[in-house]
């Protein structure tokens, strides 16, 4: 049974930093794409960032480019999101997600529909 467990959320002032972690378990995640999404109150879940299994390719939403950095440690089955220069509009529940390999199929890594497994989320609150 696949489990994704996020940690590292909390309350931080604008301009501060947080590092989110996600522990993945239950299977081997070779060739999985791992990502982060977020959902603010009253808004739809939105893509934040994703990383390929090799770590060589990373993807970011325009709203976080230059401020957030995604990374993964395959030996530990961990994924991380370093968030710097946080803004009040970054306030949301952040979710870790895993997308299995789909050979031959068109992918849309910025769509939540591409991901099969989700964590329970961790709250990030940025005060002004």
Structure write-up:
With 128 residues, this protein is mostly beta strands. The protein is built from no helices and eleven strands. It has strands spanning 3-7, 10-13, 18-25, 33-39, 46-51, 58-60, 68-73, 78-83, 92-99, 117-118, 122-127. Strands 2, 4, 5, 6, 9, 10 and 11 form a seven-stranded mixed sheet that branches. A hairpin with a 4-residue loop joins strand 7 (68-73) and strand 8 (78-83). The chain is globular and about 45 Å long. 31% of the residues are buried.
- The number of distinct helices, counting runs of at least 4 residues, comes to 0
- Tell me the total number of β-strands: 11
Order of helices and strands: EEEEEEEEEEE
Major sheet description: 7 strands, mixed
* Class of secondary structure makeup: mainly beta
Q: What is the C-alpha radius of gyration, as a whole number of Å?
A: 14 Å
Shape: globular
Q: In percent, how much strand structure appears in the residues?
A: over 45%
Low-pLDDT ranges? none
Fraction of residues in helix: under 10%
| Distance linking N and C termini | 40 Å
Mean pLDDT: 95
Quick summary:
This protein is an all-beta fold. Helices cover 0% and strands 48% of the residues. Strand 7 and strand 8 (78-83) form a beta hairpin.
